[in-house]
């Protein structure tokens, strides 16, 4: 199970304010608390205008690395920003993200091919977001052809099957779980990731929906999560589900995470 | 840290892959098999105490016992025929009419870790079968009876009474969710334990 801490993202108003005001302590603290909460990667996404994006990424990455050794997920819709931002990182992290749109995938894969970087790949293409499970799995097959072409081991790839809001779906998450199962059947060692909170947009009491989604998605094979690791209830739900799925011998991960105060013990 | 201390530490945290190698290294260092066994028994008493105190959870006790048993496998050929370190044999079972076995198995494991040879009769064990097992096995010093249902408490009483009436020189320890120390005393048991960790402690006490 892989936890990608999402809090350093300019799309979140409080983080956007800290970026605008150059509040270094605020950013450092986000890196620190997410590490303590069990994050395997600290996602860094500037969400600012193009002209200052790279400088902002560098500023953020430096601050994160001042307080933690946790690897960084360089996050931008602009593949060139990700490629440049990789160079600011002290150790291999997660490239977030690529897709088959344009030449994104070639640019990214040629950069990470001979490194230990892992990579998030979205299942959209030049034609947009495929509507059916079959179409998304077709995109997946094309994507994996690229993975093979660059000799990247599937275990370094995190497929994001694209989690869309539940409230406008007529069939719940059955399409997404079908995609997840299809992916894991073909490549058992590949990771399936996603931003958990996407599912609950425009619904009340979003936390509940997020938790229920996490359980069902894990049951289908999702094992990498972009989320707020300080959400103890959600973290506990993930560890409990992992144990219930028989992927945690003697519940040692669950017990260990509990002891570390990751969930179940209010600090 | 000496090898024997290392064995103790790794048994306590349930490192079953590491323990056999460390036991071998402790032997190579010149430690006596009996001392290594004793060290592991000591770790398990710590584990049992921590469990009784609510500091650790059932799986943590399980993996510690598993780690010890892997260590004992290394020692066994060297200890064979020498019963010096054994506290004797403990016959254990869940009483007639009762099919619960998880708690009984945990107790069996902890009693074994404390240095007894364990003969497990399983579940739904009639009173006379306990008596037969005491006669059939060598050096039985202790019988442990488990009852998990209020409806099988009379069967627990019968088991203890039958064992005591046989005149055989063994101690009897009882336990199970509905059983209280008062009930244990009332039916003539020698000891009562509320959980697997304290069962091992009590077992050693009453056969000493």
Automatic annotation (TrEMBL), chain A:
Keywords: Methyltransferase, Transferase. It comes from the Bacteria. Gene3D superfamilies: Dihydropteroate synthase-like. The keyword Methyltransferase applies. Belongs to the vitamin-B12 dependent methionine synthase family. Pfam families: Pterin_bind. The keyword Metal-binding does not apply. The lineage of its organism: Bacteria, Bacillati, Bacillota, Clostridia, Eubacteriales. Transmembrane segments: none annotated. Residues 1-259 form the Pterin-binding domain. PANTHER family: METHIONINE SYNTHASE. It comes from Acetobacterium tundrae. This is Methyltetrahydrofolate cobalamin methyltransferase. One of its GO terms (molecular function) is methyltransferase activity. GO terms for biological process: methylation.
UniProtKB/TrEMBL annotation, chain B:
Residues 87-208 form the B12-binding domain. It comes from the Bacteria. Keywords: Cobalt, Metal-binding. Signal peptide: none annotated. InterPro entries: Cbl-bd_cap, Cobalamin-bd, Cobalamin-bd_sf, Met_Synthase/Corrinoid, Meth_synthase_dom. The keyword Membrane does not apply. The keyword Transport does not apply. Gene3D superfamilies: Cobalamin-binding domain, Methionine synthase domain. SMART domains: B12-binding_2. Residues 1-87 form the B12-binding N-terminal domain. PANTHER family: METHIONINE SYNTHASE. This is Cobalamin-binding protein. It comes from Acetobacterium tundrae. The lineage of its organism: Bacteria, Bacillati, Bacillota, Clostridia, Eubacteriales.
């Amino acid at each position: 199970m892989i936890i990608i801490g999402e809090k350093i993202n300019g799309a979140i108003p409080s983080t956007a304010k800290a970026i605008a005001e150059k509040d270094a302590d605020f950013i450092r603290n986000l890196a620190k608390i997410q590490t303590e909460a069990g994050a395997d990667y600290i996602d860094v996404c500037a969400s600012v205008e193009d002209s200052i994006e790279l400088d902002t990424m560098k500023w953020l990455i430096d601050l994160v690395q001042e307080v933690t050794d946790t690897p960084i997920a360089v996050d931008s819709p602009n593949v060139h920003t990700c490629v440049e931002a990789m160079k600011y990182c002290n150790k291999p992290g997660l490239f977030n993200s690529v897709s088959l749109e344009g030449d994104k995938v070639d640019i990214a894969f040629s950069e990470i091919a001979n490194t230990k970087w892992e990579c998030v790949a979205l299942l959209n293409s030049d034609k947009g977001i495929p509507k059916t499970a079959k179409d998304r799995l077709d995109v997946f097959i094309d994507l994996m052809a690229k993975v093979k072409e660059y000799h990247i081991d599937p275990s370094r790839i995190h497929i994001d099957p694209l989690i869309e809001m539940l409230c406008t779906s007529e069939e719940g998450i059955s399409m997404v779980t079908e995609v997840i199962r299809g992916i894991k059947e073909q490549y058992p060692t590949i990771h399936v990731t996603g931003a958990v909170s996407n599912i609950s947009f425009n619904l009340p009491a979003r936390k509940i929906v997020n938790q229920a989604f996490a359980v069902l998605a894990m049951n289908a094979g999702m094992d990498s999560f972009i989320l707020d690791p300080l959400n103890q209830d959600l973290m506990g739900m993930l560890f409990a589900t992992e144990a219930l799925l028989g992927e945690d011998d003697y519940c040692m991960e669950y017990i260990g995470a509990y002891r570390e105060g990751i969930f179940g013990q209010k600090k | 840290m000496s090898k024997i201390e290392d064995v103790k530490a790794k048994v306590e945290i349930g490192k079953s892959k590491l323990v056999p190698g460390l036991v071998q290294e402790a032997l190579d260092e010149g430690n006596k098999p009996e001392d290594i066994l004793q060290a592991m028994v000591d770790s398990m008493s710590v584990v049992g105490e921590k469990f009784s105190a609510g500091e650790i959870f059932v799986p943590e006790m399980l993996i510690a016992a598993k780690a010890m048993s892997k260590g004992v496998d290394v020692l066994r050929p060297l200890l064979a025929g020498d019963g010096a370190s054994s506290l004797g044999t403990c016959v254990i079972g869940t009483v007639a009419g009762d099919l619960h076995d998880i708690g009984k198995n945990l107790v069996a494991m902890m009693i074994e870790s404390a240095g007894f040879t364990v003969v497990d009769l399983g579940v739904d064990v009639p009173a006379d079968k306990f008596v037969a097992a005491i006669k059939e096995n060598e050096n039985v010093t202790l019988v442990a009876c488990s009852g998990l249902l209020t409806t099988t408490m009379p069967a627990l009483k019968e088991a203890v009474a039958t064992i005591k009436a046989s005149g055989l020189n063994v101690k009897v320890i009882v336990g199970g969710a509905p059983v209280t120390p008062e009930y244990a005393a009332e039916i003539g048991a020698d000891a009562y334990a509320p959980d697997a960790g304290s069962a091992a402690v009590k077992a050693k006490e009453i056969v000493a």
